[in-house]
Design goal:
Its EC number is 6.3.4.18. The protein is an alpha+beta fold. Helices cover about 25% and strands about 30% of the residues.
């Protein structure tokens, strides 16, 4: 058990790290952010900040030596250099979770090995591979980079075979996925302790626009509620197989044949931001509790329902209107530059 007063290291300087740090502060911890960018919105609310490259093993070791435990806020951190942390502080979630989640082929193979069902897929390393994948899986489909893609980035829709022939492939490992016919999208968010205690939050129904999460709603539609049990069973298998510690998210499509796995995120997740006001213990607080070895808090709802809307780009300028409704809970992330497609904050409304 790591007692309050100790320092939690956070790899990554974005809004997820910021919200982890705020939750940690409420429990009496100090936080130390490590990120390559000089301008870090997570560092704004932390006691210490180290600017360094994620593959700088000497810098990582010096950072970890100042921390009682280290966590991370996003999965696109190279796993191999993180071995430099191990002699100085435990890393939660484990590096193995990163190795699985940050490569879509590894991720889908891993989940299939546990009995999960992803969309039909094929590894693509050449134009010939793509043509073969399209012939086998069919169209429409999506060609994606195996690594580093998020919020719709690094993706190309292939609506007919001719689209594949016209596409100039990037010099990166790729994966082709067939479209899934679904009624709704939802996420399963759990927290697991080192002793194997697992808690789930209610699954939110998620709506995306332009590849970015737009709204999460709890309770979810009946078609989702009927599939949550099976989805949770798979999520627990994933967490147990990885000996996971912290918050883990799996995203699913609700289909006529049951839940289809989409992707996993070994971290706190945008579709769980509603838990800050909407549950007795948020995903951020329970993540801190888990990585520090504290007892977990209740994940029960604090209201009959919750709606969370992301504030994307210029949406953040509507803060006066948002605050004019006294029932709204506004979270702005402190980002200086507003850009199209950039997550600037979110707003949560409880249904009492």
């Amino acid at each position: 058990m790591i007692p309050p007063g100790e320092t939690i290291g956070i790899l990554g300087g974005g809004q997820l790290g910021r919200m982890i740090a705020l939750a940690a502060a409420n429990l009496g911890y100090r936080c130390h952010v490590f990120a390559p960018e000089a301008d870090s919105i997570a560092a704004d609310v932390c006691a210490q900040f180290t600017q360094g490259a994620y593959d700088d093993e000497a810098a990582l070791a010096a950072f970890a030596a100042q921390c009682a435990v280290v966590t991370y806020e996003f999965e696109n951190v190279a796993a191999a250099p993180l071995a430099a942390i191990a002699p100085h502080a435990p890393l939660h979630p484990p590096a193995r979770a990163l190795e699985v989640a940050q490569d879509r082929v590894n991720e889908k193979s891993f989940v299939e090995g546990l009995g999960g069902r992803p969309a039909p897929w094929a590894q693509v390393d050449s134009a010939e591979d793509l043509r073969a994948a399209v012939a086998r899986i069919g169209t429409p489909g999506i060609l994606k980079t195996r690594r580093d893609g998020y919020d719709g980035k690094g993706q190309w829709r292939i609506m007919q075979p001719a689209d594949a022939d016209r596409l100039e492939l990037p010099a990166k490992p790729l994966i082709y996925e067939g479209f899934v016919t679904f009624q709704a999208e939802f996420s399963v968010i759990l927290v697991r302790t080192a002793t194997g205690d697992v808690r789930f939050w209610d699954s939110a129904e998620n709506v995306h626009k332009n590849g970015i999460l737009d709204r999460s709603t709890v309770p979810a539609a009946p078609v989702i509620l009927a599939q949550v049990e099976d989805a949770r069973a798979l999520a627990k298998k994933v967490a147990d197989a990885l000996e996971y510690v912290g918050v883990l998210t799996l995203e699913f499509f609700a289909t006529a044949d049951g839940p289809v796995f989409n992707e996993m995120a070994p971290r706190v997740h945008n579709s769980g931001h509603w838990t800050i006001e909407g549950t007795l213990t948020s995903q951020f607080e329970n993540h801190v509790r888990a990585i520090c070895g504290l007892p977990l808090g209740s994940t029960a709802l604090a209201a009959r329902g919750v709606v969370m809307d992301n504030l994307i780009g210029d949406d953040a300028h509507d803060w006066p209107k948002i605050l004019s409704d006294e029932a709204n809970h506004l979270h702005l992330y402190g980002k200086a530059a507003v850009r199209p497609g950039r997550k600037m904050g979110h707003v949560t409304r409880l249904v009492l």
